[in-house]
Amino acid sequence: MISPRIRALYGAGGAVYATKEAAFTMFILMFYTQVMGLDGSITGLIISLSLIWDAVSDPLVGAWSDRSRSKYGRRHPFLYASIIPLGLGFYGLFSPPESFIGSNVLLGGWLLFWSLWIRTFITTFAVPHLALSAEITSDYHQRSQVLGARLAFMFIFTVGLPAVGLLYIFAETGGVDGRFELGNYPIYGGLSCLVIWVMGTASTVGTRRYAVTPDRTPDSLPQRITLLSLLNDLLLTFKNRNFRLILGYEIAAMISYGAIATLNMLVWTYYWEFSAMEVSMILAIPSLLAVGLVMITLGPLTRRFQKNRLLQLSIMGLILNCLWLYPLRFMDWLPANGTLTIFILNFLFMMFFMYLFLLRAINTQSIIADITDEHELDHGTRQEGGFFATTNFTAKLASVFGPVYGGVALDFINLEAGALPGEVPQATLDGLAYAMGLGALPALFVAYYFVTHIKVGQEDVEQIQARIKERRANAQ
Q1: Which parts of the chain sit beneath pLDDT 50?
Q2: The pTM is what?
Q3: Contact by Cβ (8 Å): 53, 119
Q4: pLDDT score of 280
Q5: How far is CA 4 from CA 142, 149, 457, in A?
Q6: How far apart, in Å, are the Cα atoms of 135 and each of 35, 132, 289?
Q7: In terms of DSSP H, where are the helices of 74-218?
Q8: Could you say which of 13, 50, 252, 424 would form a disulfide bridge with 129 (CB–CB 3.0 to 4.6 Å)?
């Protein structure tokens, strides 16, 4: 049984990845386009290029950590080496020189450099950290609890960090909206750096007892690490049918998420005309409630339903949640912006979305941990890093769609740089809402199709683990 303390210490590492998500989904597009004046399509293209590098580096780092033979374990050397440079990267990202304003070349180069820097070190931290979950416990239910702690921290900081920023850093002062003030963004970069250093260190040091797991080290793997050997390890993961279905589902789900995450801040700012304080409340409070609800309901739900069934229910819920709020506005059944009703409805929309998305993410990663057992039985090697990293690779490759789609959508609907809420034409606002729906909903239906074909249950996993233990005992 994994103690709540260990779950919390391991989960704290989720805040590291969340800091990157918060920056790139909530602020980068607005900062570089609306504040710094970088062209929307160029911004989306640069973010997408960095995502491609992120996606390519993930499986290589995962396979590398699988083959690591350090006396400090397979995962922890990567964690220790990542924390300091990763934190510094966020300050650089939000601190371009003022002299770069108006230059697509200089601004684009600055954004590309720091995006690549951050995504490199987030990979060397997040992928080994995620793989560590399968080494901490092999229990069918405990895996969901451990990964649930990581994702709880991740979701809390993904929304909580921007919420704190909007409330205290980007708050309106003297009638000026702080989101459009250049000098506020380096402060947010410094806050992100602090979160990385504190939470990353706590998680890495707190889980050091799991750094050495000789019984799980695949002795059959060659000691020499080459690019060809890493690629062969990764290709081996595709032989698992359930894993291939997971990848198809994850690609579709992340295409949908990428569109929503990219456009959310702009929709709240212009379409619903929420202030920075209101956005911070819609970000933080529903998400905290959703995390609490997931932690309360996860145990009963996993005992009542198999993990693949919970995936199906989560995706269907996300589809239904996309089909009520914006259609009500299009049919003119909602009151004007600025009313309490509008705030409450967006509050509920966000709470449902976060609950369902977190529930599906926990079960996805828990199924992947179970698949690593199936892989060991079939091939005699443990490749937790390879499986999780390959999933990250496909998810991030799919999420390239979000920034590209968002940047092109902004240019297409003609949302001008520097435009203030209340001054945008209604046709542009409608186009922003349609762009959100068209980017999110079709991909969710595709995700649901893949999820219905995933077959892996508790009985299967327990039989696989029993056969692995028997084989190890015979080998000894």
Answers
A1: 213-222
A2: 0.72
A3: yes
A4: 80
A5: 11, 9, 25
A6: 45, 5, 30
A7: 76-93, 104-136, 140-164, 185-206
A8: 13
